TrEMBL record:
Entry's localization field: Cell membrane
Alphabetical list of InterPro entries matching this protein: MetI-like (IPR000515), MetI-like_sf (IPR035906)
Ranges for domain ABC transmembrane type-1: 79-271
Main location (coarse class): membrane
PANTHER family per record: ABC TRANSPORTER PERMEASE PROTEIN MG189-RELATED, ABC TRANSPORTER PERMEASE PROTEIN MG189-RELATED-RELATED
TM stretches of this protein: 12-37, 83-105, 114-135, 147-168, 250-272
Protein name: Carbohydrate ABC transporter permease
Membrane protein topology class: Multi-pass membrane protein
Coiled coil: none
Stored CDD domains: TM_PBP2
Stored Gene3D superfamilies: MetI-like
Length: 286
């Protein structure tokens, strides 16, 4: 290999080039959020007189007030529903994933490898493919257009089980489990008092993924719900967005609502960021 080719390749993998690529990727990710922030401060007339990233006359508080007053404050219902769906689903779902991953990794039972293979297969199945079967199942159980029709399916996450299994393999030594059994601890006590604290960073990672996935979930509520009072924020704002062509006054409401809908995700990421990074780093090292 000639020296010129080596120099050309080293130029592309140099630190400034990597930094430039990271800056471009960061801008690509942040520009929609910047547009959302500037647009939420505008009145309806400012959208036609200002640029995309230009602040108009400060109208954010008026937009927020109108948002929560629209349709008798139904946005409050959507926020509460999303908190219940995402909060409850993330906590319970993370615990279920942790228990399943621990069981597959650290216990011996017939069909364990087959079960893990089926779990990996479930990771590859798009959620949209399961929407119709879930609707038919919910219809048989007579829970369509109820809170439980959306909440129960959110408790299962094959990818979360996979992450928990991998982390349990790496973070929970077999010797510690054997010592707990010698001391007389049963399976449940061993899991909750010994294994779960060791798996905490991995469980927090699963919880964060669960929370983000459920908060942004759109297709499943669209299929299973018709009562607007049960909508999550994502579906409620979508319903409003379909009215913008006929009723332009919904435009600032949808944009302001989208900005407020992003804030819980940012807060959850910042609160859980340390544990999440610890879990990823520990898993990569081990």
């Amino acid at each position: 290999m000639s020296t010129s080719i080596v120099d050309r390749r080293s130029r592309w993998v140099s630190v400034p080039a990597v930094h430039l690529i990271l800056v471009i990727a960061a801008l690509y990710s942040l520009l929609p959020l910047m547009w959302l922030l500037t647009s939420a401060t505008k009145s309806l007339g400012d959208f036609s007189t200002t640029g995309a990233f230009e602040f108009g006359e400060w109208n954010l508080w008026a937009n927020v007030k109108a948002l929560f007053a629209q349709e008798n404050g139904i946005f409050w219902n959507w926020l509460l529903n999303s908190v219940l769906y995402a909060g409850g689903g993330a906590v319970l779902g993370a615990m279920i994933c942790a228990a399943c991953g621990y069981a597959i990794a650290k216990t011996s039972f017939p069909g364990r490898r087959l079960l893990f293979a089926l779990t990996l297969t479930g990771v590859l199945v798009p959620t949209t493919v399961l929407a119709l079967p879930m609707y038919l199942l919910a219809s048989e159980l007579r829970i369509v257009d109820t809170f439980w029709a959306v909440f129960i399916p959110l408790l299962t996450n094959p990818f979360g089980v996979y992450l928990a299994k991998v982390y349990a393999d790496a973070a929970v030594p077999n010797e510690v489990l054997e010592a707990a059994r010698v001391d007389g601890a049963g399976q449940l006590r061993t899991f909750f008092t010994v294994a779960l604290p060791m798996m905490r960073p991995g469980v927090v990672t699963v919880l964060l993924f669960q929370f983000i996935g459920i908060w942004n979930n759109f297709f499943l509520p669209l299929v299973l719900l018709t009562n607007p009072k049960l909508f999550p924020v994502s579906l409620g704002l979508f319903q409003w967005s379909t009215r913008q062509n006929q009723f332009p006054q919904y435009t600032p409401l949808v944009i302001t609502g989208s900005l407020l809908a992003v804030l819980p995700l940012v807060v959850a990421f910042l609160v859980l960021n340390r544990q999440w990074r610890t879990g990823l780093a520990a898993g990569s090292v081990k």
